[in-house]
Amino acid sequence: MTISHIFKLMTFCIILCVGVGLSNSWAYEISDIDIRQVGETTYVTIKADGPVIYEDFMMDRPHRIVIDCKNAQNKVRTSILENLEAKGITAIRVGQRDLFEELPEPTVRIVIDLAERASYLILTEENNLIVAIDTMGFKEGEGLPTETPSPPESKPQMDRTSSSTNPSPVSPDGDYLPPVQTGTDDRPAYVAGDDFIVVENPQTPGMEEDAEDAALEEEKLISFDLIKADVRNVLRFLADYGNVNIVASNAVGGLISMRLIDVPWRRAMDLILDVSNFVAIEEEDGIIRVVTKNEFDQIERQKLRNQQELEELLPFTTEVIKVQYATASEIQPALSRVKSPKGSIQVDRRTNSIIMTDLPSYIEEARALLTKLDTYIPQVVIQAKVVSIAPNATKQFGINWSAGNFGNPLVDTHAEGETSFPLLGTTAFRFGTLLSTIDISAMIQMLEDQGQGETLSEPRITVLDNEEAKIHAGQGRTRTEKSPEGTEVTQKTEDIGVTLRVTPHVIADDKVLMDLYVEVSSIAPEAAGQELINKDDAETRVMVDNGATAVIGGLMSTDRNRSKSVVPFLGHLPVFGQLFRSERSTLNKRELMIFVTPTVIKPPVKEYERADRG
């Protein structure tokens, strides 16, 4: 064997060994690609038989997503997937890099051709890669957008590896392509820092949105179907999708599994942060800062300490705050809740003012609270009529007894003392409303002219809104009471007659809600030497229009009158005198009715003008 033969044999062995080594240099195989549409998101699943190491970037003209799977072998049966039933994707191309290329490892390149630029997120699920592409605004199947945005003028560079050179791509059929220019990528980029990972989202010039557009952007819907996805990747996708800046602390991390269909992107982010025990902080410049709850507590405590330290350095000031409608003593407890620990609040009763010594910020907060509390209080005129009417005449008033008979727990009807004598009347009060077209005064006057009615009392009182007004028609009576031992004697004054308590509440739609309490009492005959009082009372709540009338009725009384007539001289004769004498007894039934009419006093225009509180 010559030297040349030996050299050729050695060369062949070396090539054979290198070929065998290269043939086994890949770590996993790309076996298939699956596509599915969920809501407004298209999912492209790249299936492999081992963990995938990849690089991805976006390219324009035409728009496409490029994914390089490192140290992999292509086992996909077709190199081009076309006529896809998915929004936004026109085709998917798969190709294997040349093993003898200058790169140290074989690579499978997957190119997803898009009809328009779209946001996307790459997630890992076991050995598979899932590319989630936002296809909102694309037509079904064709992937055509409803409107074409102008291409951005400047685009940030996507830098995912420490390599200073970009890998040279190859087409799916193995031909060489020019190196990828990542400078055309305008997707958000991760910027590594010591404490945070910043998701940058630069604004495109000339794309400023007004308030209405921002509100519509807030309602953009998104769909997720993820299993064990990295929270950081999900936040990155949401930042890109929502066109916002997100800063995640170094402690934010973990996996999340979720399925959301057509949910507003901000709501989706809140759910992700909530289940992951994270908190989003809105910064003044619009940046969303994502931290853990422990970090959030530390931040809040630090803010509080900084605020306290700043307050200790600031000088206190004293201001006099005038109270317009309420009393200063009533307002003082509410204002005391907003002062600083070292601040003070005093009341000047003579001028009805608040004297507050505190930091300017706390004084301004107290002024703002006082503006809400110290408002004009409506006044209500309560006009009552207590009338005794014949029972058959009540129908002429056209009363709507929709409130019914109050023989229920809402009505407390009782008599004081122990007696076998009957009460003043029945204990079944009735509450109703009067038709607004009825003139009460004219109707009562007509009944009085006919002898079927009598006005017992007609009080009129003005009261503040939500304050109680008391009306009494009758007389006062002083009772002497002794202690059980009989040593002490006390004087007790009681109201006998009709007592009415009204608390008006002015509500919306020009209506008045009234809390009514009525009490009717009378003196009963003594029994066993004890002074007794008959008492009926009831309470309820009714709502009437401003100026309308509420009616309380159902309390019946009976008057028995006896009359005697005698013929002079003959009526006094013995035995025969009875022929010239006669006695008559009449029984008159009356119903006691109480008419209550609330009228809200409209304030003058100047009452609405807020005076200077300086």
Written overview of the protein:
With 614 residues, the chain is an alpha+beta fold. Among the domains are: 28-134, Immunoglobulin-like, CATH 2.60.40.3500; 221-311, Phage tail protein beta-alpha-beta fold (3-Layer(bab) Sandwich); 315-375, Ribosomal Protein S8, Chain: A, domain 1, CATH 3.30.1370; 453-601, no CATH class. 17% of the residues lie in helices and 42% in strands. It has helices spanning 3-23, 211-218, 231-242, 265-275, 293-313, 328-336, 360-373, 440-449, and strands at residues 28-38, 41-48, 53-59, 64-70, 72-74, 80-82, 89-96, 107-114, 120-125, 128-134, 190-192, 196-199, 221-230, 246-249, 255-264, 278-282, 288-292, 317-322, 344-348, 353-358, 379-389, 399-400, 430-434, 453-457, 460-464, 469-482, 489-507, 511-527, 530-545, 549-566, 581-601. The strands form seven sheets. Strands 21, 22, 23, 24, 25, 30 and 31 form a seven-stranded antiparallel beta sheet that branches. Strands 5-1-2-10-9 form a five-stranded mixed beta sheet. The chain has a five-stranded antiparallel beta sheet with strand order 3-4-8-7-6, with no helix packed on it. The termini are far apart.
* General form: elongated
Radius of gyration of CA atoms, rounded to a whole number: 46 Å
**Helical fraction:** 10-25%
* Strands, total number: 31
**Major sheet: size, sense and barrel closure?**
7 strands, antiparallel
Structural class: alpha+beta
Q: Please mark out the parts with pLDDT under 50 across 5 or more consecutive residues, or reply none.
A: 16-23, 141-212, 403-427, 607-614
* DSSP strand content: 35-45%
Count, helices: 8
Mean of all residue-level pLDDT scores: 73
| Oligomeric nature of the chains | single chain
User: What is the straight-line distance between the termini?
Assistant: 116 Å
